[in-house]
Amino acid sequence: MNWTYWLPLLVVLTSLVPGVIIFALPEGRVVTRTVLNLTGAVLKIALVWLMMREVYAERNPEFRMPLVQDVDLLLRADALALLFVSLSAFLWLLTTIYAIAYLERSPNRGRFFGFFSICVSATVGIGLAGNLLTFVFFYELLTLSTYPLVVHRGTEASLQAGRVYLRYTIAGGALLLTGAVWLQAAVGPVLFDGGDTLARADLDAAPLVAIFVLLVAGLGVKAALVPLHSWLPVAMVAPAPVSALLHAVAVVKAGAFGIVRVVYDVYGIRLTDAIGVAGPLAVLASITILYGSVQALRQTDLKKRLAYSTVSQVSYITLGVTILGASATIGGIVHLVHQGLMKITLFFCAGNIAETLQVHRIDELDGMGARMPWTMAAFTIAAFGMMGVPPMAGFVTKWYLGLGALEASQPWVIGVLVGSTLLNAAYFLPILHRAWFRRPVTPFPVRRGRLETHWALLMPPLVTAAAALFAGLFASAPPSPLEWARLIAERAYE
Amino acid sequence: MTLTLWYALTGVALLVVGVYGLVSRVHVLRQIMAVNIVGAGVFLVLVAGAHRRPSGAIDPVPHAMVLTGIVVAVSATAVALAFARRLRADADERTDGAAREDEARAG
Amino acid sequence: MARRERTRPVPADAPWIVWTVVLPLLAAPVAFVLGRRGLAPFAAASSLGVAASVAALAWQVAAQGVQRHRLGGWGAPLGIELHADGLSVLMLVMTAVTGVVVSLHAHGTFGLGGHETREPSGRARFWPLWLFLWGGLNAVFLSADLFNLFVSLELVTLSAVALVALAATRVAVAAALQYLLAAMLGSLLYLLGVALVYATEGTLSLDELARGAPHASVAPPALALLTIGLALKTALFPLHFWLPPAHANAPTPVSALLSGLVVKASFYVLWRLWFQAFPGVAPFEASMLLAVLGTGAIVWGSVQALQATRLKSLVAYSTVAQLGYLFLVFPLVGGPGGLAAWQACAVFAVSHAFAKAAFFMAAGNIRLAAGHDRIADLDGIGARLPRSFFAVGLASVALMGLPPSGTFVAKWMMMRAALESGQAWLMVVMLLGGLFSAGYCFRVLARAFTPPTDTPLQPVPGSLDAAALALAVIALATGLFVAPALDLLAIGAPDVAGLGQDGPR
Q: How do the domains of chain C map onto residue ranges?
């Protein structure tokens, strides 16, 4: 046992321990809290970097602790896990900086940052889970730790949103648990091993399909698959950093990531293909993509439009995974990162606009480009990325998805991609047009200070926008998400 | 039909009467008495069970159990009666209009 | 000589099993006669002493296996025989951990004088009664024959009833009386069952009963009587009527002890009888009936908890519901995966004890601070009583059966056993119960986020907050320590895997 044995656990603890300490701190200890948060976040990135080197060399660090009978609490870093974990670690740092500025002088910050840290720990735990029980363990923890963030403001609207959120996620958790227990009862402990356990067990197709449906339904709630998506737009009442985190990283990604795990690592590609569940799921994902975009088009509230856009975009991941081909896999997995970078940028920007100028509706955005040029520039980059304009990150995703669809001879997927791109353009371009090419109806309040808003609110979206831009521009350079996704796909399809 | 069986059946009959009394009566004293009748029935069955050795000798174990059981039953009855008195005293006090805060306490 | 002794920190052959029972029973009368001045240190010393004795016994069992002791050299049937295996030790540890933390809470509560009890003597009466209760609980978990179990259960009942009445309100006394009558009836039915067993089997020792083939014609009715009596004491639906008023109106530390520990004692006896003393006697239908009643408990208790207007009654009804889970396991033991179900039940009992006691303590703190515990009027209490409310949150996680609590792991094991033995409906019930408990827990938890009101709050002593929070943290962390608990349970565990469900072995 060497030091790398403890790496996966340490990565989880770097946010869990600060979270627990923050709960114990008095509300007024702002500096201590900030130092704890940032130290944890930086330390996590450093540890993830170390882990990445291990995984690249095909030495997957693995931590286990006996939990019950034959099942361990297993944290294991493989390539797919790291893609998700490094994204979470990176965005956690930025969101923390953003949230510290965003929540300046608001009450209950101790509680907020405590749960925020627990939430990230759960996300990282989901990423590193090496078997189904561990996954469920952290998945439920994520549900619990995000509820206080959704209802943080304590208004009647946020409590109502919290109720809706709980109803969906707890029911989803129950479905996932059912599927997990069933699978465990049928074949014993389920490792994320590319489907070897199930392939050896030789079960009938009927229970396999039923379990698959249960698992995907449970995960689909968080991944906002239609018709399980309704909680997401409602949860928009939460503070902007929460929306950014929930929508870009933690919750929806946990669901999407879970679906990837189920298809690749629990069932395996061969079995998923054999029992014929991939096709229907791909259709469902396509419906979600189109439905989310149509709904987004109808929203007048900026955050709500972004929320429906999330519903749509996250399903690209599911779609890529269910087409079942190397290229489509690359497209789906890389979108896990791309969508995260782009969507968090959009939410940061929406938060900036709301926080600085109290603007929430799209028709109030006229002339915003002149008033907040940096924010709108970041927004524009992310929006073009979402539409899939080359050479942005979103284009890379769509390119590989389309390529994969053709390889798997499912040309209808191209139709979905084209339709969705047109809809994306239809709901993003008017925003950009208003911001850059129209004059404000009533002049905006005069800016105080040199920057258009607090530096800590401005820096995170600029960094993520730049990351999204580079992820597309330098898609073929070695440390890019695309190369990493290619590595995963190669290992999955070898 | 042996004498022992008679004892046992009488015990069971007492038990049934007691349980009926306990569930059908509302008055506290009657309930306490009903439980004691159940106790008497059970003890009777136990004593009847002591007469079982072919030699005719009596098994001391059930007797020891009955004795312990009676001690337990008596102490429980004493506690129950103490509660009943307290409730009664409380009710009297209440008519004087002194213990209104009780209600507030009970929420 | 002295040097040689120092090399053995814990005397390996000391009868810790005896001390575990005798120490609290000896301390109780001393606490009764002790004046008020020396009471607090004495109570603290005896609590820690009992806990230390339990720890030593646990170490002994873990190192040397099952422990037996005949008090004064007398054997069964007249003497008192003690017996400690893994299950007993787990229950003793549950009692000791909960007991020590609740003692801390009680020290704070009864030190206030006048808030929880009308009479200032509440404190002087609490300690002797609680030590008697603790001794009784330990005796239940260590008794090796049916009659000693009866006596120990009575000791538990009488002291528990008296503790409820410490609240000194009319409602509490009435609830205590109802509790006492129900418990007495339960004891008498149990005693009748004991009489039948003795008349036919000629022994009361659990071990001997387990070894001899049970008398096919008499054993089932005897077991039925024992079961009904114990179910009444455990408050199994629909025999639960006495529980909610008693648990909701008792002084807070007492509620915590009652809901966490006392109901587990009678359940523990039931558990021992079904799977150790009379394995395979009960037909499968009987265990099914218990599971159906357990389902009823979950549904009924949850529905009542969802409608409760007072926080403490919500918690009390939640106990009714959670006890239902323990009964769901009966048809699972004996099927494939039965051992896991048997273990899961013990794990569930322990983590529920921690969670429920913590919940009650926190609810009591809230009540103390606000002067009432009407759920509808608790807006913003979370911001003003953060530690107690956090304890409510953590305990709720355990009650909902979510990770990382022990109940999550226990439910996982139970569900798996349910599927492995082809009784999927039990799994559905467990899932439903989890959703229900989420429903009633979040009724309370949502209050944490509402803006605070201006109504004045009474200050809550730090020890009360600390006790609730400490036990809640323990409850939440139990899930990570299930594996060592299972190792402990394996010591002297009955061979439940080999149990046939139909007819004698």
A: 305-497
Q: Please give chain B's pLDDT, 107 residues, in tens.
A: 577 788 888 988 999 999 998 888 888 899 999 999 999 999 998 888 777 666 667 788 888 888 989 999 999 999 999 999 988 887 776 655 544 544 444 44
Exposure letters C193-224 (e unless 16+ CB within 10 A, then b): bbbbbbbbbebbbbbbbbeeebbeeebbebbb
Q: Does a structural domain hold residue A362?
A: yes
| Helix segments in A57-108, DSSP class H | 79-102
| Structural domain range at position A383 | 334-494
- Distance from C-alpha of A215 to C-alpha of A191, rounded to nearest angstrom: 15
Instruction: Say if the Cβ atoms of A185 and C431 lie within 8 Å.
Output: no
Judged by CB atoms closer than 8 Å, whether chains meet at C480 and A152 is answered as no
Domain count, chain A: 1
Asked whether the beta carbons of C108 and C158 are under 8 A apart, the reply is no
Would an 8 Å CB–CB cutoff place B68 in contact with chain C?
A: yes
Residue of A137, A166, A184 lying closest to C416 (CB–CB): A184
Name the burial class of residue B6, with classes exposed (0-12), middle (13-18) and buried (19+) by CB atoms within 10 angstroms of its CB.
exposed
CB contact under 8 A, B90 and C170: yes
Residue C468 burial (C-beta neighbours within 10 Å; 0-12, 13-18, 19+): buried
Question: Partners for C (CB, 8 Å, 3+ pairs)?
Answer: A, B
| Cβ pair A185:C420 closer than 8 A | yes
Our CA angle for A483, A486, A490, nearest 5°, is 145
CA dihedral for A423, A425, A428, A434, sign (positive or negative): negative
The class (CATH top level) of B3-98 is mainly alpha
A279-309 burial code (b ≥16 CB/10 A, e <16) = eebbebbbebbbbbbbbbeebeebbbbbbbb
Separation between Cα atoms, residue A327 and residue A323, nearest integer Å? 9
CA torsion A265-A271-A277-A283 (nearest 10°) is 70
pLDDT tens digits for range C86-137: 999 999 999 999 999 999 999 888 765 544 444 445 677 889 999 999 999 9
Strands A62-68 and C67-70: unpaired
Distance of alpha carbon C444 from alpha carbon C385, whole angstroms: 13
Q: Name, in order, each residue with C-beta under 8 angstroms of A114's C-beta and a sequence gap of 6 or more.
A: A19, A20, A22, A23
Residue A66: closest CA among chain C residues belongs to which residue?
A: C483
Is the Cβ of B66 closer than 8 Å to some Cβ of chain C?
no
The ipTM (two decimal places) reads: 0.90
pLDDT in tens, A28-76: 888 999 999 999 999 999 999 999 888 888 888 889 888 887 888 999 9
Phi/psi at A483 (5° precision): -65, -40
List the one residue out of C402, C395, C399, C403 whose CA is nearest residue C471: C395
Q: Residues of C with CB below 8 A from B87's CB?
A: 170, 173-174, 177
B with A: touching (≥3 Cβ pairs within 8 Å): no
Q: Quote the tokens at residue A117.
A: 């840290």
In a domain, A427, yes or no: yes
Give the residue from C417, C416, C418, C411 showing the smallest Cα distance to C434: C411
Coil, strand or helix at C239: coil
Whether C218 has a pLDDT exceeding 80, the answer reads: no
Residue C217 in tokens: 């014609």
Please give the full DSSP string across A180-217, using - where no structure is assigned.
Answer: HHHHHHHHSS-B-STTHHHHHH---HHHHHHHHHHHHH
CB contact under 8 A, C435 and A177: no
What is the spatial distance between Cα A181 and Cα B78, in angstroms, rounded to a whole number? 52
CA neighbor of C248 nearest in space, from C157, C328, C178, C299: C178
What are the backbone dihedrals phi and psi of residue C360, each rounded to the nearest 5 degrees, phi first?
A: -65, -45
Place of tokens 């004495």: C42
Domain assignment present for A161: no
The answer to the question of residue A217 being in a domain is no
* Helix ranges, A358-437 (H): 368-371, 373-387, 393-407, 412-437
